[in-house]
Amino acid sequence: MALFDLSLDELRDYRSESAEPEDFDDFWAATLAEARTHDLDARFEPVDSGLSTVRVLDVTFAGYGGHPVKGWLTLPADADEPLPLVVQFLGYGGGRGLPHEHLLWASTGRAHFLMDTRGQGSAWGGGGGTPDPVGAGPAYPGFMTRGVDAPENYYYRRVYTDAVRAIEAARSHPLTDARRTVALGASQGGGITLAVGGLVPDLVAVAPDVPFLVDFPRGTTLTDRHPYREVGLFLQTHRDRTADVMRTLSYFDGVHFAARGRAPALFSTALEDRTCPPSTVFAAFNAWAHEDKRIEVYDFNDHEGGGPFQEQTKLRWLRAYA
């Protein structure tokens, strides 16, 4: 499909109609406070990855509910002092995979922490290792409607909390410099990046690429692609639940986290992206609170976005921050 969303001029002025809950800040403050009642218990175990230019540590830390969450910390092999830290979040359905799949950021001389996504890790890549021990009510297959009956039960409450704790865990290692922490990710990882950008006040930069989990009122009605479509298919069956579902989703909408963004930001979008429509990305970009922000637009790309071109752009952009 060619262009299907608003024109680029309209996108630059677009604002989401997602209604922010009055208790949004209180909800997240209470959620994170509860998570921090559990000892972070970050453990870093060296692994024999077969790689000679980097050191890889198998990480376990306590996320939401004190549940164990996995990650990889990859360091340049000769690291002997604290390094700028890049914390990365994964796209929908993927897991942390194997260490050799993720070498870009350590190759720049930075520390790289990759968080596994609970309950995911079987759709692409080398797999995941973090279960989600929390049950949920009836849901459409996938993750978008798990626990959607109430914000307190929603799946992404756990994931976003894990992500904040992942940053805390990564910063606890002596070879990472907490003062120079960057968060980034693509698609679902971009949406999680927006969340931590609004919840962690002292990041030095964020880079959400083609972010998912943004502007739910538009995303769930504009595109017929998964994962947004999972919500519509759930509501095809649960016809009387639309208002309740949209209320739950509003607590997890990247637009509202963007309004609290306190770090410089580099976004990207693709104008033929039917998975994460460009208007939803611009909704977050236009709401991003920090004045130092830019967005890369890829005119003829779908959800692959800028791919290696965007990676190159990030490599150059981050030199100014970490």
UniProtKB/TrEMBL annotation:
Gene3D superfamilies assigned to the protein according to its UniProt record, in alphabetical order: alpha/beta hydrolase
GO biological process: polysaccharide metabolic process
Molecular function, one GO term: carboxylic ester hydrolase activity
Active site annotation, chain numbering: S187 (nucleophile), D273 (charge relay system), H303 (charge relay system)
Sites where the protein binds substrate: Y92
Superkingdom of source: Bacteria
Coiled coil: none
Acetyl xylan esterase domain boundaries: 1-319
Pfam family, one: AXE1
Protein name: Acetylxylan esterase
Source organism per UniProt: Streptomyces mangrovisoli
